[in-house]
Amino acid sequence: MDPVDRERLERALGEERERFVKTHPRSAALSAEAQKNLLTGVPMAWMTRWAGRFPVFFSRAEGARVTDVDGHEYVDFALGDTGAMTGHAQPFITETVALQASRGITTMLPTEDSIWVGAELERRFGLPLWQFALTATDANRFALRIARYLTGRPKILVFDWCYHGSVDETLVTMGRGGETGRRGSNIGAQVDPALTTAVVQFNDLEALEAALASGDVACVLAEPALTNIGIVLPDLGFHEQLRRLTKETGTLLIIDETHTICAGPGGATAAWGLEPDILTIGKPIGGGVPTAAYGLSTDLAARLDEFFRSEGVDVSGIGGTLAGNALAAAAMRAALQNALRDEDFAVAIPLAERWTAGVAGVIAERGLPWTVQRLGCRAEYWFCNPPRNGREAAAAMDPELEAWFHLYMLNRGVLMTPFHNMALMCSSHVPADIDLHTELFAAAVDELLM
Ligand SMILES: Cc1ncc(COP(=O)(O)O)c(C=O)c1O
User: Fold this and answer.
1) Does the beta carbon of 132 lie inside 6 Å of ligand 1?
2) Residue of the nearest CA to atom 9 in ligand 1?
């Protein structure tokens, strides 16, 4: 039974929206001004997804704190949807960026930093050979091209409700009959995604086996756990079987660690002993500076070597003039040398455990049929039992209730990721930040109960 009084929810949400408007006059004014020249009034359309009537304009972000143009300070559990998982404006990043900017940002020539970064990525993720891109979207796009080129197969396989960036082939969902459909919001698709992509439910090994048996799938592109439709963890043994099935069918395995780096310094790949053929990662590895990387096994790299050295490589569909630029390389070196290390996770993961225990305590005390899930320093609550796959997760989404928690928190100095109910902890958070969230979560729940 739904424990939430829906009428009360609607009323309370309205009150919170009014409160938000009253207390954010400067953001309101900037938002109105922004409508003139920015499509949807923001530089990136999804910035409209925040729960207030308009997005908060920020003036400063440091560590795990964001200050907005109206002078409100927030504890930031959104951390730029993982892009700022190192903490905002860390001196090791700002000083490195300033120094490298003063020496030149982009030249079409390599700098020494990229050598260090390649070695560090091997140490963390196990794959020896690396290339850089500017976004995780691009890293995934390039990895898919490589997989199709090397296998000569036309299709890729993803899990239902995955997100790997704005990559055409991945913007799919599974229809009721198991067929590949266009994700509802996928606009202007070049081709019917059923031609490019097979889709199965996460944790469904039988369907995976059947899909790979067709022999036309170049690669599986997967997050180790789904993180973009809430956290959906793999069943025990799922990854072993995924690796076995991909190997047996000559299908390459691409693991996207962009979000699951929250599991530790080498992501879930190191934490769970995964053995991908290709690994992609973006967002936090530049400490907030746009950059991404993809790594390959020695065998795949050897098969690509000749082509990558050929004249046509600049028009291969893989690349980017600014990819691997000196500023990005310096930022990655600084970020990987000073953050996302064992000692940082030794702070962030216990904080996420504290966050999870706080939320679980509130749920248990009130006897709610809700749960909380955690992966490393990322945690998330669900208004149901933990889903086992994307379809169950999507069915459990409750946009109104989510908006309530987001806005209630926002109005009281806590930023949650605007999508689902996710919080990310970093080594700049302190226990009091976590306890503030628990307190607000309890108060927000108590406002709604029947
Ligand atoms: C797992 C994963 N891969 C790739 C991306 C794409 O990252 P970007 O938008 O920085 O290209 C995202 C973005 O949320 C992601 O969650």
Assistant:
1) no
2) 165
